[in-house]
Design a protein that fits this description.
The complex is a heterodimer of chains A (92) and B (496).
Chain A lengths: L3 E2 L9 H4 L5 E2 L6 E2 L15 H5 L6 E2 L17 H12 L2
Antiparallel strand pairs in A: 1-4, 2-3
Chain B lengths: L32 H8 L13 E8 L4 E2 L24 H14 L3 E9 L6 H14 L4 E6 L4 H8 L4 E7 L5 H4 L5 E4 L2 E4 H21 L3 E8 L8 H11 L3 E6 L9 H5 L6 H12 L29 H6 L4 H33 L10 E5 L16 E8 L2 E9 L16 H8 L3 E5 L5 H9 L3 E3 L7 H14 L15
Parallel strand pairs in B: 1-3, 3-4, 4-5, 5-8, 8-9, 10-13, 13-14
Antiparallel strand pairs in B: 2-6, 6-7, 10-11, 11-12
Helix pairs in contact in B: 2-3, 2-11, 4-6
Classes of the chains: A alpha+beta (92), B alpha/beta (496).
The structure holds iron/sulfur cluster (SF4) (3 copies).
One iron/sulfur cluster binds next to helix 2 of chain A.
Keywords (chain A): Iron, Iron-sulfur, Metal-binding
GO molecular function, one term (chain A): iron-sulfur cluster binding
Protein name (chain A): 4Fe-4S ferredoxin-type domain-containing protein
Chain lengths: 92, 496
Amino acid sequence: MAVKIIESCVNCFACEPVCPSNAIYEAKPHFLVDSKKCTECEGDFPVFQCASICPIEGAILDSLGLAINPPGSLTGIPPEKMAEAMAELQSH
Amino acid sequence: MELPVLNDAPASKGGCAASSCGTTDNQMDSLPDSIREKVQNHPCYSEDAHHYFARMHVAVAPACNIQCHYCNRKYDCANESRPGVVSELLTPDQAVKKTMAVAANIPQMTVLGIAGPGDPLANPERTFETFRRLSEEAPDIKLCVSTNGLALPDSVEELSKHNIDHVTITINCVDPEIGAKIYPWIFWKNKRIKGVKAAKILIERQQLGLEMLIAKGILVKVNSVMIPGVNDQHLAEVSRVVKAKGAFLHNVMPLIAEAEHGTFYGVMGQRGPTPDELQDLQDSCSGDMNMMRHCRQCRADAVGMLGEDRGDEFTLDKIEDMEIDYQAAMEKRKVIHQAIQAEMDGKRLEKAEKAQLLKQEPKLTTRPVLMAVATSGQGVINMHFGHAKEFLIYEASPDGVRFISHRKADQYCGGDSTCGDGESTLQLTIRALTGCEAVLCSKVGYEPWEQLEAAGIAPNGEHAMEPIEEAVLAVYKEMAAAGKLDDAKDSVRASA
Ligand code: SF4
Ligand code: SF4
Ligand code: SF4
């Protein structure tokens, strides 16, 4: 069982020092989780530490491949509002 | 007749210099001598010093421990930098090299700040290693740091060990209900916390950190982002609270929110303040707080003097190849700093003398006027209209000339209804100058000349290389003599 960091990661370093298992490392093009080391924070914390500080929605997935921080959960921007704004920008 | 020039730092305390008595804008009136001394030649605090000295930032601190609604973490910390900017992340070693390379080549650079791209104190190892090494290897550089405050109480002890000149805390509110509309979450004690509870913790930590720094004798500046409809009414209260605790400057910056930055405020259509609203708030706060009007919301990794960016000369591969003999550079810097100091002192004295002389003369009764100035430093008008990336705004009135603010040439494209598609840079610039009745620069091209006139802003290239305040005064007197100032104009408030 391990979490996974995907390409939307912005390389902000925030998750790396908070991992109790030293499972996160800097890599190109983005940070990665060593799946052998990740304990999902079991025994240390009740919540995934990396996903509790990560500012980017969708950047960290749980072992089922689902975003731990789904769209809108961190920024408070309703996903449809975001889509609208992006569509608006594209049309320019 | 002539008018006194306001808002420069009085050369000494005692006696009421005409330039500071009774005005609300002098930042240093109420400061104790020890602080006044520190502040007087500081590019960030002293209005005239920022024409002569420069500061730079290094981006060594990528992580952040909170979220602000005006920030998109794909970019730099919006507290110190402009939104939508990405700085090159440096290791502490690279940052030290870069700082020393810049200091050796641009002797006017006297202050080094760590301001991002995240929160410096959320990256204590990287931030403090940079400070530790610079305190040792380049002791003539003052260090400063800015923070959202959450980790501040834990860092005060360490900060007090380095060459720290001042700490900037961004405090947008002292009321958790308001805070909840600005900060969606914080990371605190191994948990992500949201809402009013999060804002309450953040506010407590900011205030505690502020108190601890003051107790240690470290200078504290407070930044606030003005968010219309959210905290604009509340910032006077913030001013009162932080001043009572001993912060020596309060700097109100405008919210910059654009949909394309992908921030909460940008996407949700929250607007930033107009230049007038910002000035109104700065005026209303300045009654009970030292206000810093010349803060430029500088780009976090910009290098160089007012209005310029020489960052390209100091990219990573370029500094890699530079051999810096810092001992030698430090000697040179010292000589140059003394010369600049002598020049500044001379000019301050001159201004104070003129102000004294002019006090006796009869006072005009005309209304105040805002003017924009294009300059690249040295306190003179020396920039081409089309090259200016930002303008200095001055107010001329029967009480004299005072500096009001910086305006970025393209800052006020608010993405709102007044912002048509494909507005040209020239149109944007002219809109940024709303409220000004003249623009003084070394030269103005034909096309901008016509459009400026059409917008009611008189272009003026007659005062190239002249000291700013004198030129503004001269233009004001011309306008008065031409009878242009007898009418009450709506767009100009009698604010002085
Ligand atoms: S879930 Fe916990 S153990 Fe796994 S990478 Fe994240 S912080 Fe480390
Ligand atoms: S906190 Fe998120 S965005 Fe930052 S490095 Fe870790 S995964 Fe990437
Ligand atoms: S403190 Fe700075 S980096 Fe952190 S969210 Fe706020 S603006 Fe962004």
